[in-house]
Amino acid sequence: MDQDTFREQAHRAIEQIISYHSKLKTNELSVLPAVQPDYLRSLIPVSPPEKGQNPSEIQDDVESKIIPGLTHWQHPHFMAFFPANFSFPGLLGDMYSTAFTCAAFNWLCSPAVTELETIVMDWVAEMIGLDEAFRSTHSDGTTGTGGGVIQGSASEAVLTVMVAARERYLNSLVPEGADEDERWEIRGAAYGKLCVVISSEAHSCTEKAAMVLGIRVVKVAVDPDTLAISPLALKEKVKELKAKGWHPFFTTNTYGTTSTCAVDPFEEIEEALAEFPEVWKHVDAAYAGSFLVLPEFKPDAQKWKGYDSFDFNMHKALLVPFDCSCLFIRERKWLINALSLTPSYLRNPASESGRVIDYRDWQLPLGRRFRSLKIWFVVRTYGVEGLQRHMRRTLECGEYFSSLVRDRPDLFVVTVQERFGLTVIRVKPEEGGDVALGDRLTKEVARRVNEERNFFVTAAVSKGREIIRVVSGSENATKESMKVLFEDLVAKVGEVRKEITA
């Protein structure tokens, strides 16, 4: 493809993308696709083409074969999981990132890739009110000992810091002067007794990271009212494990759990674990961390100033396209100690001077994309005020939907306090119905809503009971969408009650 052909096809692709997002805003597409598993196999040849094809044909196939199989996460009726946002400024950043493609494993590979990431991650830390310990450069211009790095996802982030925590802990067991054999014998003996302690509501990413590393996971029950972990229960569990010869070395505490957006009591946890400084404390704020841009939430960021690491996904709510998970660490040396490996072909004067950051030492892969461009474009285009307006609209949509369901206590129960735009509800059985009947009603209503493909909500389980989660963080979200969903739920409850109790 030459430049002229690229220009022609790129213009067409841009128009396709604009048309696609226009159709989402005007509700011309169903939020869920009407396809069955393996639908694409019957539409695409089983073998690759021997000769190159006209790019126009490929773009036609995007329209006719790919888009019909998409779940439209930016649709105003997408109310499931958590948002995966898009913005045109973020798309521009991604386009430049692809155009400037490079592995970017050290500063020398492309100085701008490293330096822009350092700058914009400090911007993000300031925007959300993180303690200066988590910044690469402090507000007075001095170099910090922490900093931020862009990861692919919260799962990737927690695995990365768990490796750092493991190395910090195991190396602390090795006495000074131990030779190589002794060092590995001590580490090996302890490894089989390592364990991670989390709440029963923590996201599965921590458990998966431990699974990858071959480490035991111990879960602590949550408070039945707040669904947050009990600091006392966490402390007692760590004590109990240590008394039995185990090595608890890592815990994840959550700012906005997946099921209900519950918030763990960070300051009380830090106090409870004060006698166990060897336990790495990680904050998972994958979705809710975006709300820290709002003045009323920003003080929450100071609650984990004594924590070791913090992560949230700008690609969920803050208008940066996937993937862009922002990991901040208080002491960068723990990442570097655990992950730095410098074969001869990676050595260069800039890296060895100690004056630059090589982000390969802050992550598991060697190569990395120019993801900071997305943040740079989005933050500069919207400004902090524009991002705040977007997050406030998300809150307002959630509060509006919550008010609608609370006005119908004959049909719905709001199971937990509405937080961060998320409303969690159960369908209420008619007078005399038991909780098991409520479970059946709730599950069936959610199934029917999704089956019609006009809306997409999440059916889940919390405290052993069926629930429906509703959250709308799309830039296309409106109160009108929330009202239409509410009316649809009311109609479905009437239908299902009549059928099940007949």
From TrEMBL:
<dbReference type="GO" id="GO:0006520">
    <property type="term" value="P:amino acid metabolic process"/>
</dbReference>
<dbReference type="GO" id="GO:0016831">
    <property type="term" value="F:carboxy-lyase activity"/>
</dbReference>
<dbReference type="InterPro" id="IPR015424">
    <property type="entry name" value="PyrdxlP-dep_Trfase"/>
</dbReference>
<dbReference type="Pfam" id="PF00282">
    <property type="entry name" value="Pyridoxal_deC"/>
</dbReference>
<keyword id="KW-0663">Pyridoxal phosphate</keyword>
<dbReference type="InterPro" id="IPR002129">
    <property type="entry name" value="PyrdxlP-dep_de-COase"/>
</dbReference>
<dbReference type="GO" id="GO:0005737">
    <property type="term" value="C:cytoplasm"/>
</dbReference>
<dbReference type="InterPro" id="IPR015421">
    <property type="entry name" value="PyrdxlP-dep_Trfase_major"/>
</dbReference>
<protein>
    <recommendedName>
        <fullName>Aromatic-L-amino-acid decarboxylase</fullName>
    </recommendedName>
</protein>
<dbReference type="InterPro" id="IPR015422">
    <property type="entry name" value="PyrdxlP-dep_Trfase_small"/>
</dbReference>
<comment type="similarity">
    <text>Belongs to the group II decarboxylase family.</text>
</comment>
<dbReference type="InterPro" id="IPR010977">
    <property type="entry name" value="Aromatic_deC"/>
</dbReference>
<dbReference type="GO" id="GO:0030170">
    <property type="term" value="F:pyridoxal phosphate binding"/>
</dbReference>
<dbReference type="GO" id="GO:0019752">
    <property type="term" value="P:carboxylic acid metabolic process"/>
</dbReference>
<feature type="modified residue" description="N6-(pyridoxal phosphate)lysine">
    <location>
        <position position="316"/>
    </location>
</feature>
<keyword id="KW-0456">Lyase</keyword>
<keyword id="KW-0210">Decarboxylase</keyword>
